[in-house]
Every structure is written in C-alpha cells, then in structure tokens.
Amino acid sequence: MSAGACDLPAPRPADLLPRVLLGGGALLLAALLAGLLLGPAVVSPAGLLATVLDRLGLAPLPAEYAREAAVLMVVRAPRVLLAALIGGGLASAGAVMQGLFRNPLADPGLIGVSSGAALAVVAAIVLGPAVFGSAAGRLGLWLQPVAAFGGGLVAVAVVARLGTRQGVIGVATLLLAGVAVAALCNALLGMLIFGAEDRQVRDVNFWLLGSLAGARWPQLPIVALLVLLPALGLLGLARPLDALALGEREAFHLGVPVERVKRLAIVLAAVAASGGVAFSGLIGFIGLVVPHLVRLGLGAGHRVVLPGSTLLGAAVLVLADLAARSLAAPAELPVGVVTALLGAPFFLWLLRRRAAMGEDA
Amino acid sequence: MIEAEALTVRAPGGRALLREVSLGVAPGEVMAVVGPNGAGKSTLLRALTGELRPAAGRAAFAGRALRDWPPRALAQRRAVVSQRVALAFPLTVVEVVAIGRLPWLGTPEAARDEAAIGAALRRAGVAALAGRSYATLSGGEQQRVQLARALAQLDGAPPPAALLLDEPTASLDAGHRAALLGLLRDLAAAGTAVLVVLHDLNEAGFVADRVAVLQAGGCVGLGPPSEVLDPGLLRRVYGLPFRRLVDGALLPDFAAARSAAP
Where is the ABC transporter domain positioned along the sequence (chain B) (predicted)? Predict the structure, then answer.
C-alpha cells in the first residue's frame, strides 16, 4: 500500500522491560526499607544494618541495638515481607483477570475469591468452636488461613464450572456466575453473622477489613509458595494475554491455545489471590488499581503490565500497611480500609480521565 | 491449500448455516466470496480458519484437516483478518502489529521480529501511525493495522502461506481499497493463497482469480469472475437487476429495483 511517511522507531515493550524491573525493584526496595524503619517505634538505619549483620553471622549485635533488633525480627520484618508477597500476588492476579476478561474493572474478587474466602472464614469463626470444640483454640492460628484459602478456591471452582459449557469457558457467563456466587456467599455470611456472638462478630469484622498485624515468620514460606509461584507462572502468560486483548478469535488465529490459557490464568490467579487473603483478610483495590497505574505510566502490553504490577503491588501494600499502623498509632487501622481509602478516589480519577481521553470502551 | 469438501456447519440450535460447500484455494490464487447478508460468507471463513467445527464434511489446510493442525504451526502459515477488532486495552499500533509475531516466539524467526513489524507497517501504509493508540484510529485505519498484524504474522512463513480476510475493504476509502486489492494480488503473486470475503462485486471481479457465490448457506456459483458474475445469476441471488457496463463493470440497478417493488 502507500509508502509510510516515516520509519519512526516506536517504543517497544521489550525495550521497556529492563527499566520496569529496575524501577519497580528500586521502588519495592525503598518501600521495604520504609516499612522496616518507620512506624510507631522508629528503627535507625544503623540498627537495621546491625541486625542484618548479626543475622548473617558477620558481626555480633551491639547491646544498644537489642531493642531495635527485637522490633525488627519479631514484628516488622515478617510483617513487611508478608505485605510485599500479598500485595504482589493480588496485583498480578488482578492484572491477569483484567486481561482475561478484557475488562478493566475485573479483579480476583470477580470470580469468587473474596466472597468464598470470607464465607469460609466466617464459618470457621462462628461454627469453629462448635465443630472442633476445645481444639478450635489450638487450631486457631491456622484454622482461618486454611478456611480462607480453601473457601476462595472452592468458590472459584464453582464459578468456573458454571461458566463452562462443552469445555469452553464463556467469559461473560463466568463473570455473571461470579456475581451470583458472590451474592449467595454474602447471603450465607449474613446468616452466620446473624447467629454469631458479639465477640465473633468483632473477629469477623476484623478479618473482612484486612490486617497484616498477625504476620509471623512461619507463614512466610507458605505465602511465598502460594503467591510467588503462581505470580511467576502468570508472568509467562504475558504474550497470550496480549493476543487475547484483540479477542478470543484473534488469539486463536494467532495459535494461542485459548482454553488452556484461560484455565491456567484462572487457576493461578485464584491460588495467588486466595493465598494472599488467607493470612491477611480481605484487602481490596490493590488488584484493581495497581495494574491501571502501571498501564497509565508504561503502556498496556502485558510483558510490562504483569511484572510491573507485581512489583508495584508489593510496594503499595507495604506502604499502605505502614500507613495503617502509623496514622492512628498506637491503634491500628485495618489495612483494607487504607487501601480502599486511597484506592477508591484514585480509581474515580482514573475513570474520569479515561472518559476525557475518549477511551470509554 | 485452503480446502472445503462438502462442508456443512450448523448453528448451536441445529440450523444449517452452510450446506455442503466445496471449494479450494490454490497457492498463488485469490478467491473472493460474495453473497447477500446472512448467506454464510463469514461462517465459511470461520470454518476455513478452524474456528468453527464442521457438522459434516471436511475443512483442511495444506491437505490436513484443520482439527489435526497444532494451533501454533497453523498460525505460522495462515493469518486471518476479521471484520472488526476492538481492543480491551489502549495498545499502540506498533504493539498491536507486534502481537502478530506471537506464533514465532521462541523460534529462530523471532530474531526478525523488528524487521517483520517494520515491513508490515510500511506495506499496510500505517507506519506513520505506529506510535498512536489503536483505539483513537478511524475504522479504516484500524482495518489497515489489522492487515499489518496479519502481514507480520506471515513474515517468515514456510511457503505456501494463506491469508483469509473478512470484508477488509468495508471501511476503506477508494484509494485504500485499490491499495489493499493490489496488495492481495502481490501476495498471491508471491505464492500466498488468499481467500477474501467482499461485498463489492467489482472489487471481487478485479482482485479474484475465481469467485464463489453463496446464497442461503449453499455455493451457487464458483468460477472465474467473467463466468460467475453474470447479471442473471446475480439477479437470482440478490433479487435485484444488474446491468453490465461497456467496460465490464457491474452496476446494481437500484432504480429498476425500486420501480419493480410492490
């Protein structure tokens, strides 16, 4: 056809990736440092360095840093690392759900993760003592995470089953099934709360609003396994998700095994998101907003959006948790409240901006 | 190259969308598919890409049934330009064209991605749009970007390759129509099998070596344009008189159709 006016070397996603990894990595590192050093009890950089050297066995801990080392090792470090893992997992699951549903409003909650996890946890809180008797107390620390993880996965499995016909996942049906299952879970949850004792209702509320205050070292390897592995697997779906942005037919014409990609994306995102909420309770808006932030700054190619969202999501939740424990110190705000407080206005601004730019699809 | 043998496709309800259609497009040949709305043109195209499974008969590519092709190997040899592609995310033109290189990911051909994308952008006449957001383009520009994406996909394909297009001229102005039809001829001259659904009979007559006429899911005419694009057959198919002009161009006689209407 007519010769192009110029051979302008347009920016390619491949060129952006190193910058994304470097920039995102630096941001995450800064957030981790801030999360470790700041808070109701400030830790000095020297104290952090001394603790690290002590832990690595390079230099014994000077006595004047004993208190700071205790704060870091017992409270801060597991909490900050847990926040990074969960934030990264939620954001990467959100980015993949948006790509899969071809819908910028999607997040893991849409396929039942949050509602299923919430119902299971509330059931564990309210019915646990009756079912497990005195053992419930000893199970305590693990009962809720196991329930949340299992509940999230079961809900996703039900939604996926409802959205599948003759081996083909209908994305629109899946979305509606997700809405219906969420409504059902919420109704059952309401019934459970109706019959619960006051103390249980407080526990339920605490979980529903999300908190990282319960972070402990033994949780970290589990969360790393449940969140990091799927998040890494999701990175491999970047190119197929780009093709899906053109539509399922176009993706098929491009040789993408569409059904396999959809199943893989749903399973990995469900595991990552369920693994995340298992130890933190519900944390909204990270999965929804972070991928948009990345698209806004770096473009919509998934080779940039997926790793960028993972790194930025990790940094954002670390900082949100820092805000949650600092703003009302010595009391703590639920971190889900902080993410929603920051996320909702930002999201509205984003919507207005999209409409103004004529990208209201 | 692209083969249909007694191909029958049914809607989920069981209604036949395509009845026992047989045709074949050879390497180096352009075949145009014409027919009224709802005749089954797009259904035929979708069955020949492997997207729709035939209820009976056979759809094959290079002698092998489409269902037996690994998706990726197929995508390395045939590309499809659909009617209208809306994006879920604000990708730029160059990003959209780059998606066409997906079938070559991890192969030695991937080293030529940049060159293939650049060549496709120029060939489809959209190089000047490379940095623009796809969503902000006009319908005709979007169509040309999708064509560039398909060209990038076929760059490096082991010959013979195939290109299937569904009404690619629908939103194009006269100049870009001519350029697109010329490009299809060039591709055929290089050995590509081209199957193109068209509405404009004169475009079909210009670009095609052979024309297939569909009516109500059946193939009612198949042959060189000079034989098939005959006013008598067209009148039966479209329910409208056609006049052949002195230079061979066909003109639907709207005035006669209006006066004949009850």
Answer: 2-241
Cis peptide before B160 (omega within 30 of 0): yes
B59 and B50 Cβ atoms separated by less than 8 Å: yes
Per the structure block, which two tokens stand in for B11? 């809607």
Average pLDDT over residues B52-69: 93
Q: What is the DSSP letter of B101?
A: T
CATH code for the domain in which residue A225 is found: 1.10.3470.10
Domain membership of residue A14 (yes or no) is no
Cα(B215)–Cα(B223) distance, rounded to whole angstroms?
15
Answer yes or no: is A308 within a domain: yes
Answer yes or no: is A36 within a domain.
Answer: no
For residue A315, the enclosing domain spans 43-352
Give the global pTM: 0.86
Q: Choose from A254, A309, A350 for mutation: most chain B CBs within 10 A.
A: A254
Cβ neighbours of A2 in B, within 8 Å: 125, 175-176, 179
Please give the residue of chain B at the shortest CA–CA distance from A358. Answer: B136
Q: Across chain A, which distance is largest between two alpha carbons, in Å?
A: 80
- How many domains does chain A contain in total? 1
Q: What is the mean pLDDT of residues B227-242?
A: 89
User: Is A7 a residue whose pLDDT tops 50?
Assistant: no
DSSP string, B144-197: HHHHHHHHHHHTTPPSSPEEEEESTTTT--HHHHHHHHHHHHHHHHTT-EEEEE
pLDDT in tens, A100-140: 888 877 888 888 898 999 999 999 888 877 777 666 666 66
